[in-house]
Design brief:
3 helices, PspA-assoc_dom, four-stranded mixed β-sheet, alpha+beta
C-alpha cells in the first residue's frame, strides 16, 4: 500500500503493518473527539513515525498512486478532523 505524508513524499507499507497503524489511528480519532490537543499531537506523531519506520520511502520521482494520504506532522486538529473518513485516516 502506498501512503503519502503531505509535504514529505510517498512510503510503501506492507499489509501486516495495518493493524498497528489502525490502533494508532484509533487513538488519534479518540483524541480529536475528546478535543485533547496534547494527546492528539502525541498520537499524530506516533502514527506518522510508525509509518516512516515500517515503510520504505519511494523515490521523489515515483509516479505511484497513493492509496492513503496522511496529514503533515504540524497539522492542526481541525485540519485532521476534516481528513477523517468513516474509518479514520487508515481504513480497516
Amino acid at each position: 500500500m502506498i501512503v503519502r505524508i503531505m509535504g514529505e513524499g510517498q512510503i510503501e507499507i506492507g499489509p501486516d503493518d495495518l493493524e498497528v497503524l489502525n490502533a494508532l489511528d484509533s487513538g488519534l480519532e479518540a483524541a480529536i473527539e475528546a478535543g485533547d490537543e496534547e494527546t492528539f499531537r502525541v498520537q499524530l506523531h506516533a502514527l506518522l513515525d510508525k509509518v516512516r519506520h515500517v515503510g520504505k520511502a519511494l523515490p521523489d520521482d515515483s509516479l505511484e498512486s497513493s492509496e492513503l494520504i496522511l496529514p503533515p506532522s504540524d497539522a492542526s486538529m481541525d485540519e485532521v478532523r476534516e481528513m477523517l473518513g468513516n474509518e479514520g485516516l487508515i481504513p480497516g
